[in-house]
Fold this protein.
Amino acid sequence: MSVLIGPMMAADAQRCAELEHALFNCDDPWSPEAFLEALAAGHHYLSARESDSLIGYVGLARVGSEAEVHTLAVDPAHQRRGIGRALLRAILDHAEGATVFLEVRTDNDSAIRLYRSEGFDVIGIRRGYYRPSGADAFTMRRQAHQ
């Protein structure tokens, strides 16, 4: 099966929220409305599909020469297949020429490895960033690529 990456649609909001609850239940997962608000605000969101089933997503906001990755998730049943990397690379293409920031839980080793391998560096720590768990987050930055 091949995975197709394309624009997220409003109809995807419910499935994205379901994945949020499966993956981030301890840390205030996004609701369908949060995804709809991000899309309505004009942020750039992509989805990964396999056989018409949404199995991952990524979102980015860009303002001028800076951008922020809002979220990146892959269905646990489809992890370790390069889908997260493909989503990240696709969203970084949209951020071409911008410095990109993101936050990631300090205990999410696989995500940190992924981000480092794509040029992100830890530039700080945000204590108690994730709620309600109180988990810390690294702030990571990828310098602009021209």
Observations:
- The chain has a mean pLDDT of 92.
